[in-house]
Amino acid sequence: METQEGVSKQSIRERIWDYMESHDIADFPRPVHHRIPNFKGSYLAGQSIRDLEVFAGTQEVKVDPDKPLEGVRFLALQSKKTLLVPTPRLRTGLFNKITPPPGATRDILRKCATSQGVRNFSVPVGLDSSVLVDLVVVGSVAVSEKGWRIGKGEGYADLEYAMMVSMGAVHKGTPVVTIVHDCQVVDIPEALVEDHDLTVDYILTPTRVITTGCARPKPTGIMWSKVSCEMLTKIPVLRNLREREKQAGKDVTLRDEPGSQQPAPGPIRRPQDRPQAGSRGSRSPLQGADTQLAATVCVGNLPFNTRVRELKRALQELGAVPLRLTWQGPQHRAVPHYTDSAAAQQAASLLQGLRLGANALRVSLGQQRDM
Questions:
Q1: I need a labelling partner for 74 at 20 to 30 A (CA). Which of 135, 138, 180, 200 fits?
Q2: Could you tell me which residues come within 8 angstroms of residue 357 by beta carbon, excluding any fewer than 6 positions away?
Q3: Whose CA is closest to 90, among 124, 137, 136?
């Protein structure tokens, strides 16, 4: 697969997700949209990490909990390495150390490598633990042969790595590996790569082992100016790290905190590069609507298995973050609330044409009930 200049990270994600589903490359859990996609052959691709010299000499390996990395987690346990897996969404800490029962058989080790096994056979690793990670394995939605990586859009892999740097668990020479299908190896415009983005040194696919030789520096710690107050609220371990760095005299001003010099992030356009509502020379399909309508937007036709966080992420990427979100799952809809009708109109315009999974969402202003 090839990409064209001028695309966004999200358009690359959508193209790969769609391609994997339409060509039946995707594997459980499906659909792969809004996930680190699992694919047929991922287990064997992950097992090929044993052929890397950087794996043979490791003692402690950090592997993300994504399904396509299950083969790597199993191999790490089978090779009697210390396996660290990030806690889901970092809400209960940074790592869990997988601890198989004494005398664990191959089948039990295989269970320990699953998401359920990670929950059942692990102990938390605190910030004060002596951790020195020899190898980092991350999932990806897209990656280039130059080592530039695109995740699913939540930024957790980038943040996890930055947090490991801050606690001294990794250094600039710690190798990073990703496991993807061949169709996920694409050209990524350099303009899309940001300072906080994690790059990779090795790419494993079902048919290839790619050494990227990436010279772009990896994150050297947490970029607090990229962290939001909401993220800090949700991730206790991040608050602890911030307090440590604050006491050390570092600038830990958050992105949306008073005193921040960072401009508010602009909206991310969809692949069709829609102009924003109110842009000069453009006309939104919602312009001319009654501006006295309630400051809400009705979002309907949500796929039956959509999660709240998936819609929230889409709203954030489009620059349409609401004050709050009313979730009406049984009706397959949600109602974002905004400060005023103008903000709601802007959000509705940005949301026109948005798709989640296979569904094109229905977007309208106000408290409409005919969805």
A1: 200
A2: 31, 33, 34, 303, 305, 306
A3: 124
Q: Measuring CA to CA, which residue among 137, 256, 279 is closest to residue 200?
A: 137
Q: Is 338 helix (H, G, I), strand (E, B) or coil?
A: coil
DSSP 29: S
Q: How many whole angstroms from its chain centre is CA 148?
A: 14
Instruction: State the alpha helices, DSSP H only, in 260-320.
Output: 308-317
Q: Can you say whether the dihedral through the CA atoms of 198, 129, 119, 42 is positive or negative?
A: positive
Burial 165-203 (b: 16+ CB within 10 A, else e): bbbebbeeebbbbbbbbebbbbbbbeebbeebbbbbbbb
Give the tens place of pLDDT for each residue, 115-128. Answer: 888 888 988 887 76
3-state secondary structure of 54: helix
Encoded tokens for 116: 């359920």
Q: How confident is the model at residue 99 (pLDDT cuts 50, 70, 90)?
A: very high
**Which H/E stretch holds residue 17?**
helix 9-22
